[in-house]
Write the structure tokens for this entry.
Amino acid sequence: MGLIIGSFSDGWQNKARPELMKDSAVFMCRDCSMDELGSLTCRQKHSEETFFSTQTNTSEIESYCQLDIEGVDHKLIYYVVGSTLYRWNSFTGASTAISTAVTKSHVSYAPLKPVLSDTTFVFITDGVTMLCDNGTSTKTWGIDPPENLPLVSMAGSGGSLSAGDYSYRYTFYDHNTGSESDPSVASATTTAAADDEATLTNIEVSSDSRVTRRRIYRTLVGGGSWYLVASLNDNVTTTYTDATADANLTTKLTTDQGIPQTGDIIVSYKDRLFMSGDSNYPNRVYFSMSEKPDNWPSTNYLDVGTSDDSVENVVEFEGKLYFMQRATISGLYGSDADTFAYHKTRSHVGVWARWSVASGPDGIYFLGHDGVYRFDGLKSVRISEAIDRTFGQIADTWTEVVDSDTVKSVARGVFLEGVYYLLLPMKNVDGTVTNRILSYNAFQQTWLAYDINCSTLFSDQGRGKLYGGLEKPDDSGKYSVYELMSATTGTDTASPQATTKSFNIVPQREDGQSRAVGWLRKFRVDCKGSWTLTFYVDGTSEHSQALTDQSASTRYAWYDFGPNTKGRYLQVHIEATGSPLPETYVFNELEVV
């Protein structure tokens, strides 16, 4: 009998029936890379993110988000520690706590530049706390309308009003963004004489820091629509004198500008914000006014399907917006608030873990109830057939399974440079649950697994970096953010290991019939670094061999099995020992005779 195990190129397959696996795949892997064609190598190490290397956080760092805004290398980092949301501004070098009331571990971020703003605002929600931030100042979403109605009296002369009845209203206004509140209650109707002027009092001063002006509106003589009369360019003045003729009024009042409802998913799409996650209306998607992300008219929403098919996430793919639902996927069509509607796709499955959704070059990836799917804009195809046992119910000694009790809240998915990274809570045979990262290379169509216990994932698409929140490796109880799998040296300890498929080692007789068993006599290895090999025959550990400091000079050395090593099926567990580094730990091939 002669068996050569190598040419690893098909990733982690983890089939429930190993005989269906490809010879060039592995049944289980962890902390391995296949960047070196045909070989198993140690994954790249983690390197601590520069800003966080100076921090001493004693709680997990969650909901990490990094955004570039106006300016040269002007970067904002948002992250949550406990219930506090922080923002770090690379331009000012300042780290600021912008909220101490974050109630959920997942926070949604969406950048959008309001029509009158010089800078982009980041809109932030966790389903309770809703903030907009431009890197230096933080406001709440929307502006509540004034509570005071204006009081009006006529002077009898001195102006250009026509004889007849008038009424007034006013709004709160943020001239930096164009955000405007709904109007106050209308004043009592007041009758003017010809060439009269009106005096307004009781104009409210807002306690909202974002209010920079008040805008005053009135009807034309005899009532009807409301038109802009003037703007009080401060948040101090409480009176105004109006002497403007009707002919000079041209700008109509928008009476339903609205403040946003509450949701926990926010997406910037074209010139609007779209939001879902309203617990009272689980299938509802709200949208803001065009270029006015603080203004959400009461009629600006879509009810996507029925209430029992909740919208779990909202994501853009190939210039279109899709609503990832519990049972299916729908898409948005229409060009404006009057024509927006949804259409159902042919996806036969919906999202099981809402934060697993990530948009890639060939589709939207997400975790369904029985594995990972890719939605191509029309239908969904399961792509995790190769790792069935991971999505099973019972773990064995080599393979963990997804913990169904916590996966909906813990799972995180991101896409980076053609690879879908999925953070999953994995349950071992002893019942312990630990977060792991799986990766799927969309071009090679291969899965790998990494021994990384993250609390969050974030991909910086522009810089090509993947970040995760981790506990520091010195067991100090401190937490930091690391650029994952980025350096040949780093601060963490990788533990590459793999298990081959199960190979039939029963030889054929000359008459074509199978012998009862196959005998194992010796083996040799082509590898670099230090590895321990454990040989399982018919599911039982029969031999273990530690190989230290292997190199080209040792690749032809033979090692003997113990006496009477025989059976029908062979499976080999390969594990690196010592302090593996990507460039010095390579496993090419194993030959068994």
Summary: DSSP finds one helix and 51 strands in the chain.
